[in-house]
Amino acid sequence: MTRLRRKKNIYARLSACASYWFEVPVANRGCWRQACGMPPDCPLYLELGCGKGRFAIETARKNPGVCVIALEKEQSVILSAIESACEEGMTNLFFLCADVLLLRNYFTPGEVDRIYINFCDPWSRKNKPKRRLTYREYLETYKTLLRPCGDIHFKTDDSRLFEFSMGEFEVAGLGIRKITRDLHNSPWNAENIRTEFEEKFAEQGVLIKRAEAFKPD
Ligand SMILES: C[S@@+](CC[C@H](N)C(=O)[O-])C[C@H]1O[C@@H](n2cnc3c(N)ncnc32)[C@H](O)[C@@H]1O
User: In what order do the strands lie in the sheet with 67-72?
Assistant: First the structure.
């Protein structure tokens, strides 16, 4: 009963911000910029597993000419991100409550300019590498959806996941650049936008690893 009531409440809150999220993402496959009211030639950045949305919000603020779409599978988590964007009246940030597994149903080949993967689950305790969002099969999907020269910006606290991902990027035929195993003391720190999880790990003294993988021309 309590769960049902909570769910009802989530829908009511989501409905109040209806213009900031897309309930049926497949409907906009191939026409996201238009659906978001953005110019047809503007860049489209996609964040996978955005959590509470701090990174997506700041990225959209800093890049007003970019259409930012943040995707998260947990409704109760993405809700606060949607409400923040709505309160601020942002015009270039939108949300999908959806699973990365179904990404090909939501975007057409070449539709996306950049993908962000921030602090995805390392799946190391259960030793399930195929579930990592940087596993080669996921990378094939991202490669298809990215335009030529499009890129993936990847950050993690987890050393094993990071080294694994470097290998997977190579297997997928992606170029790799701007690699650092200590982002906060690297030349790329100045332009870095911290996520919620990143802030938490940094407070614990964990070094943040980061790299960019890019699709060849
Ligand atoms: C560890 S949290 C990181 C959140 C945020 N990116 C950050 O750095 O603060 C990972 C997030 O990814 C979401 N997630 C995991 N697998 C997903 C999937 N297959 N599709 C969509 N979201 C997913 C989880 O629900 C969770 O909110």
Answer: 93-97, 67-72, 44-48, 112-118, 146-156, 209-214, 175-180
Angle at CA of residue 97, ends 126 and 142, nearest 5°: 65
pLDDT tens profile 79-124: 999 999 999 999 999 999 999 999 999 999 999 999 999 999 999 8
The pLDDT tens digits of the residues spanning 166-213 come to: 999 999 999 999 999 999 999 999 999 999 999 999 999 999 999 999
d(CA 99, CA 181): 28
Nearest to 63 by CA among 82, 74, 47, 80: 47
**Structure tokens that stand for 181 in this block:** 């195993």
Among 65, 84, 198, which Cα is nearest to 210's? 198
Residue 121 CB–ligand 1 contact under 6 Å: yes
Task: Please count the structural domains in the chain.
Answer: 1
The residue whose two tokens read 């996978």 is 48
Burial readout 71-92 (b: 16 or more C-beta within 10 A, e: otherwise): bbeeeeebbebbbbbbeeebeb
In this prediction the pTM is: 0.96
Residue 24, domain CATH: 3.40.50.150
Q: Which DSSP helix (H) or strand (E) runs through 5? A: helix 2-15
Query: Which of the following is catalytic: 41, 99, 113, 121?
Result: 121
Residue 202 phi, psi (nearest 5): -60, -40
Domain residues for the domain of 107 are 2-214
Any atom of ligand 1 within 6 Å of the Cβ of 72: yes
